[in-house]
Write a structure and sequence with these properties.
mainly beta, four-stranded antiparallel sheet, 1 helix, 4% helix
Length: 295
């Protein structure tokens, strides 16, 4: 964000706040939702607990099971004690959860733990998860600015060393056809200097796709459009951007008001489902294609 001029920044927020209001459903009653995932029938939301501390081993984290309209079906779906669960991913009947310093595999039918992989020697802030195939995941360690490749066959992992450090690496999204892993970063030194781009998994080179920087979190690709969230500040100022992958044009997704910590979101049925991590909300926002260009 710091690369935008003050005039453009002000104009951006005026356009975002004055956009025609959409019908957005807000589900309340959570503590701090960090991530959501969907299996086609149900939605799952990771709540880190009462305190906004992503590394606390306090045992009060939980996974909610919801229907596709956001109604809570089970407020404690996972039977295992959780601390501060964050990134979620679903594949082949397994719900994967990053919980502080371990990756858990959960039977999505029962909520019972199948196994876990210990990362305590590497990090205390495992964050997002991206599924590459039935045998491979990628996970981010935000506190160490590191990316790991997980082998689900032998339950091992290895670090992916990119040519450039991605400070506070956070959101992950795989595009197998292009052999790319899209990533963003939350930044370093408590500054909104995170970047967004992709890693070519053939040579582990990172390409930055925009000079805009921020506190980046969620990331998703839909219909050749890259969506990514920016907290902007640690208050209710967060936004979601979209980038046309063919042209590189960046836009702000119209919302009636800023979001309080827009975290790891998903897109389904032409709507964004965005956790407001700071205020414990889950937002269901219709996805409009008309946008305001800012670059």
């Amino acid at each position: 964000m710091k690369n935008l001029t003050k005039t453009n920044l002000v104009l951006f927020f005026i356009l975002a706040l004055n956009a025609k209001a959409q019908t957005i459903k807000t589900v309340n009653g959570f503590n701090h939702i960090e991530s959501v995932a969907i299996d086609g029938r149900y939605m799952y939301a990771a709540d880190i607990g009462k305190e906004l501390n992503p590394s606390a081993k306090d045992g009060d984290g939980k996974i909610y099971k919801l229907d596709l309209k956001g109604n809570i079906l089970d407020a404690s779906f996972v039977k295992e004690t959780l601390n501060a669960p964050k990134g979620l991913a679903i594949d082949k009947g397994v719900l994967y959860i990053n919980d502080v310093d371990r990756l858990l595999a959960i039977d999505i039918k029962t909520g019972s733990k199948l196994y876990e992989i210990d990362f305590s020697k590497e990090t205390s802030f495992l964050n997002d998860i991206a599924v590459w195939d039935k045998n491979t995941l990628y996970v981010s360690a935000t506190d160490k600015s590191k990316l790991f490749k997980v082998n689900l066959i032998d339950k091992s992992y290895s670090e992916i060393k990119t040519d450039k450090t991605i400070a506070g690496i956070n959101g992950l999204y795989c595009t197998k056809k292009a052999s790319r892993l899209y990533v963003n970063g939350f930044g370093s030194d408590n500054k909104p200097n995170g970047v967004i781009g992709y890693i070519n998994l053939k040579n582990n080179q990172f390409t930055q796709v925009t000079k805009m920087e921020g506190y980046y979190d969620g990331i998703y690709i839909d219909d050749d459009i890259l969506y990514f969230s920016n907290w902007v500040a640690f208050e209710k100022k967060g936004v979601v951007f979209s980038m046309q992958l063919t042209s590189g044009k960046i836009s702000v997704v119209k919302m009636p008001e800023p979001i309080s910590g827009p975290a790891d979101f998903i897109i389904f049925n032409d709507q964004l489902v965005i956790p407001g991590m700071m205020d414990g909300t889950l937002l269901f926002a219709p996805l409009k294609k008309e946008v305001y260009f800012i670059n």
